[in-house]
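Handout, section B. The chain below has 144 residues.
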Amino acid sequence: MVPARLTVVTLGARDLPSLREFYTRLGWPLAIEMDGFAVFGLHGAVLALFPLDELAADGHVEAAAPAEGIAASLAINVDERDEVDTALDAARAAGGRVTKEPVDADWGGRTAYFADPEDNYWEIAWVPPDSSMAAAIARATASA
């Protein structure tokens, strides 16, 4: 069995210093900084930045060409509806490219999107506390 657990998200960086600086400007705590590697401590997991060519070599595959459009996104869930707007403003100020301004979603929450300097897409979302998604997130982020 493979444990149903996500502990590290690693982004292959084309320009590691620039990407590291972006996440530092977001205010995320830098937990590890080495030549060619950076790790940010997040709530529930860590975000690692690793040069794309080295990540590809480590996985025994070719490095992907820059994507056109969105193929995947990472989500940041906030505790209050208004925090979507505040967090998106902070991402914009740090140099993130806003791709979707905050909107109230038909499922009852609020959502927005931004891309980092290398077009890794992030959703900022608030989900109603009584929703099944909120319950799933709480279970997933609870301490063992």
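Note. The chain has a mean pLDDT of 94. Compare this with the example in section A.
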